[in-house]
Design a protein that fits this description.
single chain, 188 residues, mainly alpha, 2 domains, 3-stranded antiparallel β-sheet, two-stranded antiparallel sheet, elongated
Length: 188
Amino acid sequence: MIILKSFRLFLILMLLTGIIYPLGIMTAAKMLFHDHSCGSMVTRNGMPVGSALLAQKFETERYFHPRPSACDFATIPSGAGNQGATSKALTQSVRERASKLLASHALPLTASIPADLLLASGSGLDPHISPEAMDFQLEMVARARNLNPEKRARLRKLARELIESPQFGIFGEPRVNVLLLNLALDDL
């Protein structure tokens, strides 16, 4: 008798917490926050090109680059490299990134590089860079696309317009979504 009651309770709880509740939450999310519940997909000509919430790898100099990723932008094993400030591996990877950036930007070894272009984000999937990192890459992108002075000025203006303010005016720092910037760049 006790086993039968336990089994009934199990079925009721399974139905309630495993089916009704998840379906209810999913339905509410789709109705109230459709874009967010579907992954904040960005589409171009009706085709998805990425998510506004996840970084993507851009390697060519014709595009702005996101922060480095410890997980190579893979969503399943996402995470940080877990290397502390005294880590030799971290120091070596920062040096390699710095020399690669300086070479691709044709800058002297004494040039200052924004930290977010040298250090990976906590998740390895941060879609944003700082306005300073965007400014650092502007000349590289303009040179790779052979932009004339007029188009370079338009690129600078466009880049400035895409800077997002801190959330609610207080949380976070000003930032730029790299995917949205690169899509706007293609439209330029």
